[in-house]
């Protein structure tokens, strides 16, 4: 089972890119972030023609998340995180797909920090942590995938000294991510490739992609019930070089049908 996460940076403006990638890679499940489209403008018909059922939680101009499933319809289990009823930002959706519970998330950026946007980011992270703890306690096989807007370690950022004080790299945010791991979640890419330089985002400015001046912002966290099935993980890095590409590249994992005795395979960047 191949599960991918992709901050599409505008699902309608980059629909041709998305459809090409779906056709070439045929992931079983896709978590999309930053749809930048209200519910009524989500391209459901085009995605259905590509062979995917979909659920989505859209928002005009900003945010928005979706889960696609090849050859089936995701069974929605949650829309939005609990804990802040007044929050109207579309950043979380959850569904069951082929026996796996998939949480698709788009964590707030939080800049400028400190400030109200950073405070909101920390509150949202705490709400995610509360929900994630509940999910682990169910014992279900769960994957939390998406754009976390955090570089967990210095290995995950090009020239980390330039990011000190940024909301994506501040100690509070990195500690919040570490807190999720302390609950028992597995950082899938790092579990398989602990020392590799892996980026999932390259800014449009200053030839960042050409210089490989990137960030690892897109993560998969696996619950203890499903972590032993992790077989492979990688980034479709070349897609970042396509015409009209998102500033993120799709990140993916492969899950075996049964637990594996050991994990292997180098990171793949196709």
UniProtKB/TrEMBL annotation:
Q: Does the keyword Oxidoreductase apply?
A: no
Q: What class of enzyme is it?
A: hydrolase
Per the entry, the cofactor note is: Probably binds two magnesium or manganese ions per subunit.
Q: Where is this site: Important for catalytic activity?
A: 218
Q: Which GO terms describe its molecular function?
A: DNA binding; double-stranded DNA 3'-5' DNA exonuclease activity; endonuclease activity; metal ion binding
Q: Where is this site: Interaction with DNA substrate?
A: 248
Instruction: Please name the PROSITE patterns in this protein's record.
Output: AP_NUCLEASE_F1_1, AP_NUCLEASE_F1_3, AP_NUCLEASE_F1_4
**Which range is the signal sequence, renumbered to this chain?**
none
Q: Where does Mg(2+) bind?
A: 7, 34, 147, 149, 247-248
Instruction: Cite the position(s) of the site with description Transition state stabilizer.
Output: 149
The residues annotated as the active site are 106, 147 (proton donor/acceptor), 248 (proton acceptor)
| Names of the cofactor(s) | Mn(2+); Mg(2+)
Instruction: Specify the Endonuclease/exonuclease/phosphatase domain's residue ranges.
Output: 4-248
A biological process term (GO) from this entry: DNA repair
Question: Keywords in UniProt for this one?
Answer: Hydrolase, Magnesium, Manganese, Metal-binding
Tell me its EC number(s), please. 3.1.11.2
Give the family from UniProt: Belongs to the DNA repair enzymes AP/ExoA family.
Q: By what name is this protein known?
A: Exodeoxyribonuclease III
Q: Which organism's genome codes for this protein?
A: Aurantimonas aggregata
The encoding gene is: xth
């Amino acid at each position: 089972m191949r599960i991918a996460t992709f901050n599409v940076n505008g699902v309608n403006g980059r629909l041709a890119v998305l459809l090409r990638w779906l056709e070439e890679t045929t992931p079983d499940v896709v978590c999309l972030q930053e749809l930048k489209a209200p519910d009524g403008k989500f391209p459901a018909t085009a995605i259905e023609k590509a062979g995917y059922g979909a659920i989505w939680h859209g928002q005009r101009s900003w945010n928005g998340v979706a889960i696609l499933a090849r050859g089936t319809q995701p069974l929605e289990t949650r829309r939005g995180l609990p804990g802040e009823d007044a929050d109207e930002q579309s950043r979380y959706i959850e569904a069951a797909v082929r026996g796996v519970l998939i949480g698709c998330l788009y964590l707030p950026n939080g800049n400028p920090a400190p400030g109200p946007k950073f405070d909101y980011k920390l509150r949202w992270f705490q709400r995610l942590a509360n929900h994630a703890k509940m999910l682990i306690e169910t014992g279900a096989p769960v994957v939390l995938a998406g754009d976390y807007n955090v570089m967990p370690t210095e290995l995950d950022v090009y020239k980390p000294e330039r990011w000190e004080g940024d909301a994506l790299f501040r100690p509070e945010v990195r500690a919040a991510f570490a807190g999720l791991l302390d609950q028992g979640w597995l950082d899938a890419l790092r579990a398989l490739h602990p020392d590799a330089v892996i980026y999932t985002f390259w800014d449009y400015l200053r030839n960042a992609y050409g210089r490989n001046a990137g960030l690892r912002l897109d993560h998969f966290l696996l619950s203890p019930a499903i972590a032993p099935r992790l077989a492979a993980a990688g980034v479709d890095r070349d897609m970042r070089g396509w015409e009209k590409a998102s500033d993120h590249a799709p990140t993916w994992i492969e899950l075996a049908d049964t637990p594996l005795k050991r994990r292997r395979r180098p990171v793949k960047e196709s």
